[in-house]
Amino acid sequence: MRSLCTSLATTEPGSTVTLEGWVHRRRELSRVTFLVLRDRSGLAQVVLPAGTPVPPEETTVRVTGTATANAQAPGGVEVTEAVVELLTEPAATPPVELWRPSLDASLPTLLDHAPVLWRHPSQRAKWELAAASLKGFRATLDGLGFTEVATPKIVGTATESGSSVFEVDWFGRPAYLAQSPQFYKQQLVGVFERVYEVGPVFRAEPHDTVRHLAEYRSLDVELGFIEDHRDVLAVLREVLAGMVASIEPSLAERAGARLPVVPEEIPVVHFAEALALVGAPADEPDLAPEHERALGAWALAEHGSDFVAVEGYPMAKRPFYTHPQPGDERWSNSFDLLFRGLELVTGGQRLHRPSDYAQAIRARGEDPSAYDSYLQAFRHGMPPHGGFAIGLERWVARLVEAANVREVTLFPRDLHRLTP
Amino acid sequence: MRSLCTSLATTEPGSTVTLEGWVHRRRELSRVTFLVLRDRSGLAQVVLPAGTPVPPEETTVRVTGTATANAQAPGGVEVTEAVVELLTEPAATPPVELWRPSLDASLPTLLDHAPVLWRHPSQRAKWELAAASLKGFRATLDGLGFTEVATPKIVGTATESGSSVFEVDWFGRPAYLAQSPQFYKQQLVGVFERVYEVGPVFRAEPHDTVRHLAEYRSLDVELGFIEDHRDVLAVLREVLAGMVASIEPSLAERAGARLPVVPEEIPVVHFAEALALVGAPADEPDLAPEHERALGAWALAEHGSDFVAVEGYPMAKRPFYTHPQPGDERWSNSFDLLFRGLELVTGGQRLHRPSDYAQAIRARGEDPSAYDSYLQAFRHGMPPHGGFAIGLERWVARLVEAANVREVTLFPRDLHRLTP
């Protein structure tokens, strides 16, 4: 019966234990040989007589021996009188030493050797932040009456935004990879009222920046029977709080993450006010990265908040399904959420009346019939609704203050990278 | 403050309530008009004076009125003295009447009008089975120390099985949609030991059958430090039990699902024994659908089980990474799980020694260097491991005994269908 490395700490000294894992480190001293074993729970120290052959680092082994108290060992218990059995062939030397406390690898090395370098405990912990965040995301929404959905990633038309989609050869016909579940999550509000989906989205924009990926995980939410985008923002606040709460302090420490406090109410500034705050001209149509940073600094100084929502983005810069701000249609009922001065979430209220869709589509110079499949949900009765999408990789990158979103993505895909 | 329809039952009679939802049905009698309102929780009855104009079915409305006891109303409470406010324009007539107790639509109608027809309560409940199953799947694996992962859906080579992949135009280069996360989940066993992923998989096989989709949701699991495929099957048993336990009896009833009992131990027959049991020739390389049905009937009769695992499938019919059966390499350490006589899950033990991979790849007439990226995990130490994949849509289809897997898929994709 296999024990986990960290369970050694609570094992009765003198008992026989079997551990299985990777040779994390071997150290051959003159009077004794140490084997540090790594499994999913952590590390354990195994003591062998000097001269015992120990397989190379990263080889998988089974160790059977006696649990023995030793204040110097991790958890205060080590394994002595051990027999080491190989579970595979001796491992090749890793491209970077994984037993060192920190992983010292350039970004290209990290990415080229991802299957091996993710094994480093501090690197692995970064993905565990993502996994914990997903749990918190779903648990929060399940508690609020949301239904998980699964929408198609292959779509027949590139209508949402024609310029940045990947084309697929679909049995000899052109089809496209979905750049978001936007149209489908809206249609499903008509069925379930409140829906969420965690899934891949695909953007063929040839951005070669530290914050863009061609495939990433989008945490999508959409809900019906709202008053306006402020109801959407209130759900987003709950979701973020749930994501943070799902990360145990010990994990945050292992991953080097600085967890934010999510305020009871996220500060909100109107886009026009935001421009004034950062000293930008009043006719700027968007916030530049330096404006986002300045707003982040402002929110921290004024409100002690790592988060700030900017509402009312100009309609001209938002997708056609965006709901305008009542009373002043230059602005929209939409928002961006900045986390530590970087855009993390885009959300807002959508149009829900079929006549508003027809008008918005015609205003783009398009024929509403091209959107017939999408629009049937609206013709047959939709509630006022809205939603948001969080980029998982961006979220984790901000938590650990990674310079590049690729550092926290298991197997990133971009303009240049399709492997590993 | 909005109340849900089903919360009416516990509302103090005489209080003012606000409900929001869809006009499920309107019935204009000579002395009174009934409006049945539908929201995500269920139905509520609203009573209006005869002659009150009521918007057409499926229009979204807000109803404010007085909660009034009436033994004939759903939940024993209805809304009287009501004001009905439209939340959108009057809805177009649905292609099929959604207020009828059962949804009477041909498959093409169901699929063409999916955004509207999923609103039917019994149809919606079918997807709720899927959502509940996903919760049970994740909760079971989280409890067993698994980590959720996210692997790329765009891959650079079509190596896993070249014939059935979709090609993507990746910034002018060819790339492919992943037909499974197989290679990646194995590599991640090297990092996390135990991993799972729920995600889309893509199969370009031009099957036009009732059980194949070109895009479906795969529930993938992989774990390290196993003895053999029986350890994998034991985890699968826990997962299935967790999925069934997550479905509330009231949901099963609404969806018309017949929930199975997952036996403490799933009966296992060897492939060779299975052929004999169904009277097939001993040299058959695979089980035909009628053989699967016969084995399902046998498991039910002999073991009272809706499930039966067939282990030892011929190596010749399994992918190259399959681990052979020790002592007789004609057979494999892999299995199919049949649920009510249909294949639901494929799983097994994989190779883990780098030299075994080199040999298996050469035996296909290929050069191992073509798999270099995949094989680096093995060169650097992998444990004995295995896993399985459950098709979500097939699972739900079996629960409700749907004739066609498309009936339980939100927006199916196949050879002929890319919309809605």
Written description of the protein model:
2 copies of one chain form a homodimer. Chain A is of the alpha+beta class and 420 residues long. Chain A has 2 domains: 2-86, Beta Barrel (OB fold (Dihydrolipoamide Acetyltransferase, E2P)); 114-408, Bira Bifunctional Protein, Domain 2 (BirA Bifunctional Protein, domain 2), CATH 3.30.930. The first copy, chain A, has helices at 107-112, 114-117, 121-143, 182-192, 229-245, 249-255, 271-277, 289-303, 354-363, 372-379, 392-399; strands spanning 2-3, 16-28, 32-39, 42-49, 60-69, 77-86, 147-148, 154-155, 167-170, 173-177, 194-202, 215-224, 268-270, 307-311, 334-339, 342-350, 385-391. Chain A has an 8-stranded mixed β-sheet with strand order 7-11-12-17-16-15-14-13, sandwiched between helices. In chain A, a hairpin with a 7-residue loop joins strand 5 (60-69) and strand 6. In chain A, helix 3 (121-143) packs across helix 5 (229-245), helix 3 (121-143) packs antiparallel against helix 6 and helix 3 (121-143) crosses helix 11 (392-399). At the A-B interface, strand 2, helix 3, strand 7, strand 8 and strand 9 of A face strand 2, helix 3, strand 7, strand 8 and strand 9 of B. Strand 9 of chain A pairs antiparallel with strand 9 (167-170) of chain B, so a sheet runs across the interface. Chains A, B: Residues 137-420 form the Aminoacyl-transfer RNA synthetases class-II family profile domain. Chains A, B: It comes from Nocardioides glacieisoli. Chains A, B: One of its GO terms (molecular function) is aspartate-tRNA(Asn) ligase activity.
